[in-house]
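A protein record in our archive is deliberately plain, so that people and models can read it alike. The tokens are whole numbers drawn from a learned vocabulary of local backbone shapes. For reference, a complete record is included directly beneath this paragraph.
>
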Amino acid sequence: MSLYYRSYPPNFDPAQVDPGVTTAIANIVGQAVLEVRVGYFGICINPDGGAFLCSNNASSLAGQVSVDQDPLNLIWVASTFKDSIVFPYLIIVAIILAFFCFVLLATFPGWHEEVDERGSERDVKPFPSRPVSQIALALIFVASVFVLVSVLWQHTASVAASTIAQDLGNGSVKSGVGTSAMILGWFGFALLIIVTIGLLVMILSISLLDRLTDERD
């Protein structure tokens, strides 16, 4: 999520008790152009349109700007959002579970040559172990659920906080949600779902083949 000072025509609504407060806010903001961006592990600020300064300590960032550069304490607002809303640990656990799943997938047997009863060589690929396949499926399924919960939670919370912050700074503060981060999050979830469905289809197919083979015997 990003918050930044920008002057624009305020939105007026009959539900506003004191529409004139936007003028007071604009006078307080003055010529400030500071931008604050919130990530999973830190905050980045751009006080004057130059380079970004990043840190996981909001107090150190606040100490590097003047009152005129951040008159509405956007750095503090961003820090509160990061500490109260942003929760990256579900994604970290999901990455660990997915890693172990791919380690199990690497143990699946590959193609190799065998000599049949007639003495001719043929390429054979044995079925993977059913317990290993089921464990891999369980790991990737749990990882998918964790990523879904995390991405959905962060997306909903970011949009809500962004909207509220912009409404409070009506006419002087703009906000936005990182589109690239959301796309990457949902793309990662889609990949995990594809792996989950692939493993499930493989396990069901092997079970069906085993059943048909037993009936034929």
Remarks:
- Strands lie at 2-5, 35-38, 43-46, 53-55, 112-115, 121-124, 173-176.
- Helices lie at 21-29, 58-62, 74-84, 89-106, 130-168, 179-216.
- The two ends are 62 Å apart (CA to CA).
- The first strand starts at residue 2 and ends at 5.
